[in-house]
TrEMBL record:
GO terms for molecular function: oxidoreductase activity. GO terms for biological process: bile acid metabolic process. This is 3-alpha-hydroxysteroid dehydrogenase. Gene3D superfamilies: NAD(P)-binding Rossmann-like Domain. It comes from the Bacteria. Belongs to the short-chain dehydrogenases/reductases (SDR) family. Keywords: Oxidoreductase. The keyword Zinc does not apply.
Length: 244
């Protein structure tokens, strides 16, 4: 029996990359998983591949009505929700001078507002399930500085995690954040700066970029009873970058 037998999970931004890895890991451990993404082609294909215990729902995570739809479809298909992985996010590397207000609000809405909406609308469902685990994917740039917009939004994820942990504890809902370093996902490997990133990876104390599974194993820990006394905490998985 898996660690998540009969649990119901939602993973956002799950059509590829880290989100796909998280979804596969939760499914393998016995959960029924709803994967959401704007990329319906990849999302539907992944759900079809993974089988009857996976449902794809197209979602813009910045839209309140679409969060309501995701919660409703999850409950009607599988039942009350036990696990939410707020994984969807974007990054850019612009200076203050280059960053327009539209740029700024786009990254804030996707990286920060979506987490607020997910937490807000999943709480009643988790309360019906007598508890649950919310896992917010932040970044090491929610711990240390980086580019404007991205850093700000990832620090905010760290903050709302702590606020949610305090408020939701009455319903036996735990809320924690994960702070990855450099992860070898399509966003990195297919980008223009991949060669630069590979050189940077040589300076990481453990000598390599993270694989998506390195993050997914921590997601599994936080989703399961193994972390039953952890809430309001940040978990850094960066190969030692922030220790330098």
């Amino acid at each position: 029996m898996g660690k998540l037998e009969n649990k119901i999970a939602i993973v956002t931004g799950a059509a590829q990359g880290m989100g796909e890895s998280h979804a596969r890991t939760l499914l393998k451990e016995g959960a029924k998983v709803v994967i959401t993404d704007l990329n319906s082609t990849k999302g539907k294909a992944l759900a079809e591949e993974l089988g009857e215990n996976v449902l794809f729902v197209k979602q813009d995570v910045t839209k309140e009505e679409e969060w309501k739809k995701v919660i409703s479809e999850t409950e009607s298909t599988f039942g009350p929700i036990n696990i939410l992985v707020n994984n969807a996010g974007i990054s850019f590397n612009k200076t203050f001078e280059e960053c327009t207000l539209d740029d700024y609000m786009k990254i804030v809405n996707i990286n920060q507002v979506s987490v607020f909406l997910g937490m807000k609308y999943v709480q009643p469902s988790m309360a019906k399930a007598n508890g649950g685990s919310i896992i917010n994917i932040s970044s090491i740039n929610g711990i240390v500085g980086g580019a404007v917009g991205y850093t700000d939004s990832k620090f905010a994820v760290r903050g709302i995690t702590k606020a949610g942990a305090l408020e939701f504890s009455k319903d036996n809902i735990r809320v924690n954040s994960i702070h990855p370093g450099v992860v070898e996902t399509p966003m990195v490997t297919e980008g223009d700066s991949y060669e630069i990133v590979k050189e940077y990876a040589k300076t990481i104390p453990l000598g390599r970029m993270a694989k998506p599974q390195d993050i997914s194993d921590l997601v599994l820990f936080l989703a399961s009873e193994d972390s039953r006394y952890s809430t309001g905490s940040e978990f850094i998985v960066d190969g030692g970058i922030t220790a330098q």
